[in-house]
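step=encode ok
step=design start
structure_in=
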């Protein structure tokens, strides 16, 4: 009996043949992620492509197409869309290779690569103007929707009203952070290093208009990478210095204020991530993400240690049902 997944792959191969892209070549698995999307690599003559399978009843690919075109036209290094059929949920993209940032930073070029990635954030914020008119707003209600994932999967005993009351001060402060284009998942698994250390950006379809520190915390306090707190603070200061020279909105920004914005945006993100990792284990039978939970909790502890007024959130963490 052919599985639904195999039926999707067979349908994708049929569609690629009709586009004269597959011919006699076979599809090889390139990657999968925490969503329902899958990626395959195919070779057509001398050129390699990535085929995306995004079941249309589970994944809406239109934001990927529209945001990707906007980013590409603005000089941001994202894949080119070679072919698409949104009704079927298939796309063919240019291929950045399979050398992920997560693997690249294991050598002596770590600081250089992080500097390149940080500049990509600055480029997105300065080139993708008008984001407030083109993207969903990362507002209080969206924050709470994300944070409720942590409540649902790690704090089943607390009431919604009590939980929201505790988190309202954090949500309000994050909402007050200046906003710009926000990739929303700017981490090591969504960055590819190719062609003499160029950085390619993928998985941008969830972009929003949100806090200017959000993508930076996704990069430096990455859920999948151990980074030293002192190194993170230095990279944060370097980013602010670079931003001041390229973006006038940063010129009068106080360092301590920027660090606090970094901390608070990160706290919101990391609470959500702990909830998502538990959901992946409990609901989706993907236990491999649990190994990253201690790292994320460590980032949360760093923020709570230097922001003592958030002690009630620390109490939530202490009460949470954290899986091993």
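sequence_out=
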């Amino acid at each position: 009996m052919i599985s639904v997944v195999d039926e999707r792959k067979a349908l994708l191969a049929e569609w690629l043949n009709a586009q004269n892209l597959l011919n006699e070549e076979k599809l090889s698995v390139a990657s999968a992620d925490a969503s329902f999307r899958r990626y395959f690599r195919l070779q057509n003559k001398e050129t390699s492509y990535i085929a995306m399978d995004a079941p249309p009843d589970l994944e809406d690919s239109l934001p990927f197409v529209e945001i990707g075109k906007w980013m590409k036209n603005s000089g941001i290094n994202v894949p080119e869309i070679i072919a698409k059929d949104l009704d079927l949920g298939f796309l063919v993209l240019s291929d950045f290779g399979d050398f992920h940032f997560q693997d690249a930073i294991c050598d002596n070029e770590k600081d250089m690569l992080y500097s390149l990635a940080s500049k990509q954030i600055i480029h997105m914020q300065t080139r993708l103007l008008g984001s407030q008119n083109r993207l969903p707003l990362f507002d209080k209600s969206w924050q709470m929707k994300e944070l409720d994932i942590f409540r649902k999967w790690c704090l089943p005993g607390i009431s919604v009203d009590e939980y929201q009351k505790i988190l309202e001060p954090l949500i309000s402060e994050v909402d007050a952070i200046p906003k710009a284009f926000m990739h929303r998942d700017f981490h090591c698994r969504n960055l590819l290093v190719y062609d003499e250390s160029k950085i390619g950006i993928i998985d941008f379809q969830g972009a929003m208009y949100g806090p200017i520190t959000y993508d930076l915390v996704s990069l430096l306090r990455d859920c999948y990478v151990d980074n030293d707190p002192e190194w993170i603070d230095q990279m944060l200061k370097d980013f602010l210095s670079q931003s001041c020279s390229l973006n006038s909105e940063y010129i009068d920004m106080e360092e301590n204020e920027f660090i606090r914005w970094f901390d608070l945006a990160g706290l919101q993100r990391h609470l959500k991530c702990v909830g998502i990792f538990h959901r992946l284990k409990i609901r989706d039978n993907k236990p491999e993400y649990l190994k990253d939970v201690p790292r994320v909790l460590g980032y949360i502890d760093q923020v709570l240690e230097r922001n003592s007024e958030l002690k009630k959130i620390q109490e939530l963490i202490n009460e949470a049902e954290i899986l091993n």
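step=design ok
step=annotate ok -> The mean pLDDT is 91.
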